[in-house]
Amino acid sequence: MKIKKHKLSIIMLVVVFVLPVVLAKVALDNSWFNEASTNRGRLLQPTIDAAPILKDTEKKWHFVYVLPESCEQDCENAIYAIGQVKAAVGREGERVDAVFLATESSDPNTVALLNSSSQLELLHKDISTVNKVFKDVDVNAIFIADTLNNIVLSYPSRSDKEQAIMDSRDMLADLRKLLKLSRIG
Q1: For residues 47 and 102, what is the distance between their CA atoms, to the nearest angstrom?
Q2: 20 to 30 A Cα–Cα from 147, which one of 14, 37, 54, 174?
Q3: DSSP 53-122
């Protein structure tokens, strides 16, 4: 009787400790649950290596925006949103830079306006370099690059002011989370 109880105890221990691990492995392999993500922007997989365009910048988190040929409402909203989010980051603001990429075909009035601002960084790059970096991605968006110059998130640039404000809230939430989790930059 005692041997039977001992065997039953061992079997129960194995069931209690091994069965959950086996079930978790089977659930992961068969995608039995929804994989949740907490980011609000579009996570870029794989990330974009932006070293060719950001190599001369400080080791910080960056908002990256490519200035279009004509700066319409969506462009103006993107510039405004980036400035507002950068200001809203607060004391972590020294860890974040806003980088605007100007090419030969960028709107000259917008380039002149951004050139006069001390809060925003304007980089002049060849259009071929910009196209090489963003070869598979639409550049009509706001991007977040990490401290290693990898673009990890994107947000669409919107012509509707209200939607642009909502997107800027999403950018702020994601950036705060990234800054909290990162000790670099």
Answers
A1: 22
A2: 37
A3: HHTTS-SSEEEEEE--SS--HHHHHHHHHHHHHHHHTGGGGGGEEEEEEE-TTS-HHHHHHHHT-SSSEE
Domain extents in the chain: 1-36, 42-181
Dist. CA 130–CA 140, nearest whole Å: 12
Please give the CATH superfamily to which domain 42-181 belongs: Glutaredoxin (3.40.30.10)
Q: What single-letter amino acid sits at 86? A: K
How do residues 148-166 score in pLDDT, each as one tens digit?
999 999 999 999 989 998 9
pTM for the whole thing?
0.79
Q: Do 65 and 86 touch, CB atoms closer than 8 A?
A: no
Of 38, 24, 65, nearest to 154 by C-alpha is 65
